[in-house]
Give the backbone structure.
Amino acid sequence: MSEIIQSSAPVIQYPSLEKNSLDIREFKNIFLTIMVWGIAIMASIPLFSVISMLIIEGGARIDFAALTEIPPAGFEMGGGFGNAIIGTLVMVGIASLISIPFGIMAALHLAILDPNSKVATVSRFLAKVLTGFPSILAGIFVYGVIVITTGTYSAWAGGVALAVLMLPTVTLAAEEAMKQVPQRMKDAAFGMGCTRTQVIMKVVLPTGLPGILTGVILAVAGAAGESAPLLFTALFSNYYMAELAEPTASLSILIYNFSGMPFDNQIELAWSASLVLVVLVLLFNILARLVGRSKFKE
Amino acid sequence: MTSLSDTGEFIAKKYEPKGPVVLDCQVNNIYYGDFRAVRDSHIPIEKNKVTGFIGPSGCGKSTVLRSMNRMNDLIDSFRFDGSIQYHSNDIYGKKIDPVVVRRYIGMVFQLPNPFSMSIYDNVAFGLRLNGYKGDEEEMVVKALKRAAIWDDVKDKLKNSGLSLSGGQQQRLCIARAIATEPDVLLMDEPCSALDPIATRQVEELMVELKEHYSVALVTHNMQQATRVADVTAFLGVDISKGGRTGYLVEMDDTHKIFEDPQQKLTQQYIRGEFS
Ligand SMILES: Nc1ncnc2c1ncn2[C@@H]1O[C@H](COP(=O)(O)OP(=O)(O)OP(=O)(O)O)[C@@H](O)[C@H]1O
Ligand SMILES: [Mg+2]
């Protein structure tokens, strides 16, 4: 027995498993790795330059006055954009109050209640079209529907215009999140004796919450930075808002107005306002994640 | 001994239950759309016993089991023709609310399906759903202990149910199902994802459970059927006529089915002569 094994042992040729850098595959691998890294770095250059510019230029003028005072006129020095911060928060708030409940309810219909019906197919298609909708058209639409009928530019109109933009994003993201909830989990809930409403409230929505929140964050971040739809709806105001039915300032319009002015003071304020806008979106992002984080360890 | 239906199809000899029956399941036909999945089967589930379902894959064991708490109502194409008497009600009666039926007739599924919430909340889910007024924590702990998972999870009740291994998840699902103390527990191959030790524990659990509840158990494991089932129903599937309709071939006390089956099909299946 042992003789046979010994005599046959030298015949076996084990393949070499060592790395061979002359191998064409190895070469391709190295080449592609370098390419991918290079392109990734190049792609992040604009991002980092924007952020560093924002922090340097915008950070220079951030102080209590900038955050609370009203915009300066012409050659005036000082001033700030407190009214624009409030305006943006209020209008994004209105837009969220409209688009989040409607978006989630629409998503429920698309994902759970009647996913294959005609209504669902058509509305899903329309929502997808709307995500690529030029935002200025949302402004014109709301101008026609609300501004002309009420006879005034207003925070309401601005909020509705932003809601029109947010709605498809929220809907599609929430639909996707709810579809990810496995059928097995829903079966388990039905098996425990849940009604359909209870399955949705106790299982589908909590399980899909992280995905829904991601969609909401994306939509809010997009809406907070929009200026085109607000041009026709909220316009601008140099004063703190007293009511919702009057022209209202917003950060994005202030940035747009001030960055084109020939005065250093205004240009500096535009930078600061940009930084504030980015920080607001970031804060909201973090807040939403804290709220949405599951109460247990995965 | 056996009879034939109007169309000349085989109908099993009626099983005469020896004790009280909790679910008297008379299937005439079960359809998925045009597909006739199960026909003519009378399967009484006796009180305080484990009733086993065995049979080749696709013969309709899960279909019959899921009919017993109206889980199949969630499938649009599903149609049930027959009756299932639960106490004095036909659960397929017009006035019956399937949601309420499912609270009394619980179910453990083939694949573990815990909710994406903490282990504790998973087990407390049914209690909260039913508005349980007593000591919730006590019930949760009791259910976890009885499902033989307490030792695995006692230090991490706040962790997600999904963080457990497959076998642990299944025992968690069993704990969830028994926490509300349902009258009847339907179990569809509950041990298919478990290792031999956990399987043993779940089997012991089933034997223990039948003191208070009644259990219907689908299994592919013959030994499991002989170990835990008091009564066994063998379902076959008739492919000779082109269809794939399942039907009850024989139902009797487990030892009778395994030691002295009356039908040739049962003999062949038990001896492993066909899959
Ligand atoms: N939702 C469904 N829609 C259509 N047909 C179905 C559905 N569920 C099951 N069937 C069919 O009904 C028949 C019985 O299926 P069932 O799942 O009850 O078999 P089973 O005996 O549980 O098999 P297994 O042992 O593999 O679990 C099969 O032919 C299957 O294809
Ligand atoms: Mg099955």
About this structure: Chain B touches chain A through 31 residues (CB under 8 Å). Residues B 32, 35, 37, 57-63, 75, 77, 244 surround adenosine-5'-triphosphate (ligand 1) (CB under 6 Å). The mean pLDDT of chain B is 90.
